[in-house]
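Troubleshooting: if your tokenizer reports a length mismatch, compare against these two reference records.
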Amino acid sequence: MERIVRPARKLAGEATVPGELESASQALVLAALAQGESRIRNAPLSCQRLVGLLRDLGIAITEEPGVLVVQGRGRLGFSAPRDTVNLEGLGEEALYLLALLCGQEFSTRVYLGEAQEEGRQLLTALAPAGVETRSETQHLWLVGGGSPLQPITHAAAELSAGIKTALLVAGLYAQGTTVLRELLKTGERAERPLRQWGAEVLRRRQDSEGEWALSIEGGQELQARELEIAGAPPLALPLVVAALGLRRSELRLRRLALRPGRRFFFDLLRQLGAPLTLEENDDGTTDVLVRAGKLKPTRIAGQRAEKLLDQVPLLAVMATQTEGEFVIRDVEMLRQGKSDYLAHLVQQLRLIEAKVGEFPEGLVVEGGYPLKGAAIDTRGDAGLCFAFAVAGLWAEGEMTLSDTRGVEEVFPAFFPTLEKLQERKK
């Protein structure tokens, strides 16, 4: 779909962005495990594949405007799927699904794909509990269909938080108390998701060396609930950057999941002088208040560049509004593949008359020059669409984006949100 973005005077008001995929996926699986109706608001469109997998396991999920309504059937209420359950490409929710399938009375063929390593770790850890598995090919396993699981104690090990939570999910199917010994890492609480859905999980310190024991009693049923998924920070960034470059803008982005590890771009903006205010909410989410402001140029390289790789188009457009030389290097990975993404980005920047230079490892932008509207070949890429939509608000003349499929897939209301927030130039 082609979109035309016209210059704006300012952005003002409040906005929300689609929820985090990881949090929404976790909520969907646990809602399916719960008894009764759960309502999940602000789930992203990218959850649809998981919705399909759960429906194939007998879980009724209906869609209302902005809400997924899940009819949970309890631990043993799942139905045998019609075909292989394909977990390839899923995140931690693949582990939760694998754990609950191990506790079912029916057997399931499961294709692990990219989840192979962590999936095998989980199945290995569950083998002493009586989980019956058989490897049919490298990525295809037959799981479940055996007797009820036995309670065991899992020794402390370097397992991911997702595997630990999955072991606790499996503990719901055990006849007795499952114990997980762990060395607590900062910020990790494997039991938190289950507690939020009504399970009783005890945490006790074992010794002075920092080992803890998590214990969960089998047979517990999770409780249905209503929740709103916090907004994904990357989807808020185009709105934040747009407001920074428009005089008199005052914008509030509501309920973002701005946890440690998810806020690097926001921290960078504050280091560059952006007038951002972060307000913590009682539920652990964060409201971000943005006002227009000038940014200092900087040099992005090394680990900083690696963390911002997905945001290079937005960074480059943002750099046009700084006063001075803004360098982005160590992003040569963007040149790999069938086409040179970085060279294409530079070409599109020059179409809007940005002062940009290119070198093998990156690019340099000389900020402070006016931008002009142009026809942009976005190639359907969300990063390019977001970045040049922002540039279109700042530029003189219309910015035509050739293909906005990428944006429509991750933030369907992005362009309507821009329309609602902006005051147009006359």
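Reference record two:
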Amino acid sequence: MKQPEVPTNGDFVARLSSAADDQQQEMSFKVEKMCRSCRKHRRGAAAVEFAIVAPVFFLMILGMIEVGRAVMVQQIITNASREGARLAVLPGTTATDVTNRVEEILANQTVTGATVEILDESGGVVDPTTAQYGDVIKVTVSVPFSNVSWMPPWKYFKDKTLVASTIMRTERVQ
């Protein structure tokens, strides 16, 4: 008499895995069919989403450009005021020399409409040629942001003025 075959553990696992593969194929077919029907109803959704998000995105980009421009111009006028103060403390320099040097630096960087002031420590206007040894000379450069902005003035930046000051002591011989 022949004994009935007892399935081994490997045969049982093989049958289960083939049944699972069949179920998975059937499930993926159903999911694909369902996704296809959903896609028909979502035509144009990407265009609508872009139309909603794009203005906000471009507004943020333009804002970053404007803030970057403001920082760049602030650095330029800071450098110009430093150069002007350095020139003002040297012997034989006039207020016209200082103003011309500052305006030259600003013109090279396409910054227009700046105001240059040469002041003493009390805030009064001073002529560098009359300054004595150790006197404080302050060169202040200011420019309205609307003069250097690349875009129409925004509400926040409309009345802003970028200002940079440098203070140095004169280097005259006693």
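Descriptive notes for reference record two:
- The first strand starts at residue 115 and ends at 119.
- The chain has one domain: 48-169.
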